[in-house]
Amino acid sequence: xxxxxxxxxxxxxDLVNAYAQRVDHHDAAGVAALFTTDGTLSIHGDVGVVAPxxxxxxxxxxxxxxxxxxxxxxxxxxxxxxxxxxRDEATGETRCVAHHVSxxxxxxxxxxxxxxxxxxxxxxxxxxxxxxxxxxxxxxxERRSLAQVQAGTAPAxxxxxxxxxxxxxxxxxxx
Length: 175
Hints:
Blueprint: H1 3-24, H2 28-33, E1 35-44, E2 54-57, H3 58-67, E3 73-86, E4 89-102, E5 109-123, E6 129-145, H4 146-151, E7 160-161
């Protein structure tokens, strides 16, 4: 692999990780800056939906959407990531497990999303890679009582799935 391709792969992987870290830090402006000026974020907000439930065009709209998230805290754990690079463009798919905690103390809920990002990346005029298009697709969603998780009494497999989540034959341990 030529050094330039290795450098591109590392830059794209850093971009994927920066997105997760900035979302977890509630840095909406930082998230938006990772996109091209005309970048798109499409969110498929339920398991198995074909059409996106939300589409944001441009950095300003992406920033507003990220800033409006109603979660007290999130934790994105990046799994496998592959990218195919063609000169100044690339496509990629990243798997992620993302925890989303909301609710009042004592009644907090952790919504765990097993998701994938389908991305299109572009090298911009400044030489930096940015996200031109990100599609977020939910594969499995679980809902867990945070009090039960912290006490170690959550049901096997982590909790009860939200409506629309697969239960029979789920690939999760303990199912």
